[in-house]
Amino acid sequence: MATKWVSLDKLRYAISKIHTLLQGKVDKVDGKGLSANDLTAALKGNYDAAYTHSQAAHAPAAAEKNIIVGVQVNGSDLTPDGSRKVNVRVPTGALAGKSQVSETDLDAALKEKVNSASEGNHSHGNKTVLDQIEQADLDKLDGIAAGANKYVHPTSSGSKHIPTGGASGQILRWSADGTAVWGADNDTKYSPVTQSANGLMSAVDKKKLDGFGAASSYALKSDITQMYRYKGSVSDASKLPASGQVAGDVYDIQTASSYGPAGTNVAWNGTAWDALGGAFTIEECTNAEIDQIFTDLAAG
Fold it and tell me: Which of 125, 139, 227, 259 could form a cystine bridge with 275, CB 3.0-4.6 A?
């Protein structure tokens, strides 16, 4: 964000606005403060009574005690049925009071099935083979990538090797998509280029080149040097060169003159000195000037 300087007129306007706003402020009253008791005795008594009541320990009038408001089983709410009763079903039997079931709690038939499964007493078509597989064999199988030992080198385009044969001076030439053959390295002859036919360069580049004008139509380095050239400073306008100057020479005039204020730059245009502009100073208003504005406002 650019720095802006406030003029005295703008500053006076801003302060006058502040002064106007301050006219509506509440004046300070001697002996009064934010902590002073400015309430009437009756009103303060009402506030004190309300505060005392709020600190008293007593239960609300509508409080209820020892009344069940709902029934849950394992955290889930039970809803009363049509008879407005809640039925909590509790397991019964020999296992109802146990947190875990042991082998001795099972009947004979179920116990035999469980033991048979845990001891591997089951059968399937490949049981003989699978029973012979050890963990080391499984570890080896896990290390083999899918499709291993089945690599077939591709023969598609871009995957074929350089063909055999060839002789000194020969090069690989295109034969078909993805296929090359050995052949002689023939010399290439380029025809003259035109804007419509390629040759030593492309037709597009030829058209661009033809678009340029003759070299004499462009500015030379010597032409560019005729721009402004700073030559130095002179104490006053009478010290400006009267001869030998060339167009583009620039001087700084240190004192005020007919060309402008002190610090004005002038350039020789070929026949006379032409003013390019001068320097000027922006001053910041002082504290004394700001204080004076407040004094003037206070005086009305």
Answer: 259
Query: How many Å apart are CA 300 and CA 296, to the nearest integer?
Result: 7
Whether 264 and 275 have beta carbons less than 8 Å apart is answered as: yes
pTM above 0.90, yes or no: no
CA neighbor of 166 nearest in space, from 186, 182, 184: 182
Q: Are strands 264-268 and 249-253 parallel, antiparallel or unpaired?
A: antiparallel
CA distances from 127 to 18, 51, 112, 136 (A): 100, 87, 21, 18
Could you count the other beta carbons within 10 Å of the beta carbon of residue 183? 13
Other beta carbons within 10 angstroms of residue 278's beta carbon come to 17
**Residue 127 C-beta-side C-alpha neighbours within 13 Å:** 6
Residues 87-138 have pLDDT tens digits of 877 777 777 777 787 877 788 888 887 777 766 666 666 777 777 888 888 8
Beta-bridge partner residues of 233: 252
